[in-house]
Design brief:
158 residues, alpha/beta, four-stranded parallel beta sheet, 5 helices, globular
């Protein structure tokens, strides 16, 4: 099963999701990430945060959804509601869910506030990924409607 984490810039939240998913997932599950308007680079704070959690970023880069090496089975958008952010709509026939996370790269303020925003985004993403990986995926694979319901429920976890 291949999961695509999608947002606009593919520099922060989607990369945090991809790397964390791949770090935690068992064999047979793989995540990729992409953006509708890729930034062209990973956000340095996202990379630093992943490294601080013991998660490798080797091989990860900001890429367009037009350049995906595989076709995903599931697309999870991670765009947030901050500043009226619009999520890109992946239009191919796949199972879709939304796990909105506010973009920590837009936080301005003291160093502690920015660090806290990145930690909070990571905490939410990790909690949702752990819930995803705890699902009985073999059973749900045959029931796309139930799987979608579960994915949407997970997207409401905070």
């Amino acid at each position: 099963m291949k999961v695509l984490f999608l947002c606009t810039g593919n520099s922060c939240r989607s990369v945090l999701s991809e790397a964390t998913f791949n770090h935690l997932a068992p064999a047979g599950l793989k995540a990729i990430s992409a953006g509708s308007q890729p930034a062209g680079r990973l956000h340095p704070r996202a990379v630093e945060l992943l490294h601080s959690k013991g998660i490798s970023t080797e091989g990860y880069y900001s890429k367009s959804w037009n350049d995906l090496p595989v076709t995903p089975d599931i697309v999870i958008t991670v765009c947030g509601s901050a500043a009226g952010e619009t999520c890109p709509a992946y239009l191919r026939p796949v199972l879709r869910a939304h796990w909105g996370v506010d973009d920590p790269s837009h936080v301005v303020g003291m160093e502690e506030e920015i660090t806290a925003a990145f930690e909070e985004a990571y905490r939410i993403i990790r909690k949702r990924i752990e819930a995803f990986l705890a699902l009985p995926l073999a059973q749900l694979a045959g029931d796309k409607a139930k799987l979608k319901t579960e994915l949407e429920r997970i997207g409401s976890l905070s």
